[in-house]
Amino acid sequence: MRCVIARFPFDLTKSGVLESMKGVKPEPVTGESVIIGRRHYPVKQVGQVITRQDRRDFSAGEVLRAMSRLGFTCRTLSDAAPARPDSPFLRASAMLGGAPASV
């Protein structure tokens, strides 16, 4: 698949990405991520490995679009962790499966 990342065209394949990421240890995920094999990689780390460019040269969105078009599972910040309730009452209500009452 042909895609443009940081204004440069790349011909990427799913098998090529898998091969490029083989043996690469994932960094801690703090934001958007891509699941390659059974590992969660930060999207910027994947972009750096497959394009051989500095992370500041491309956006996470460019890599997320390319990886999702190739069939990889991508997670954004909103998918990564649900918001935690603020008060102990809301936490207890959420753990019991009930809808929190409005105060």
Can you describe this structure?
The protein is α+β, with helices and mostly antiparallel strands. It has one domain (2-95). It is 39% helix and 18% strand. The protein is built from five helices and five strands, in the order E-E-H-E-E-H-H-E-H-H. The chain has helices at 14-21, 43-51, 60-70, 77-80, 88-95; strands at residues 2-5, 8-11, 33-36, 39-42, 73-75. The chain has a three-stranded antiparallel beta sheet. It has a two-stranded antiparallel ribbon with strand order 1-2. Strand 1 and strand 2 form a beta hairpin. The longest helix has 11 residues, at 60-70. It starts with a strand and ends in an 8-residue tail after the last helix.
How is the topology of this model organized?
Blueprint: E1 2-5, E2 8-11, H1 14-21, E3 33-36, E4 39-42, H2 43-51, H3 60-70, E5 73-75, H4 77-80, H5 88-95
Antiparallel strand pairs: 1-2, 3-4, 3-5
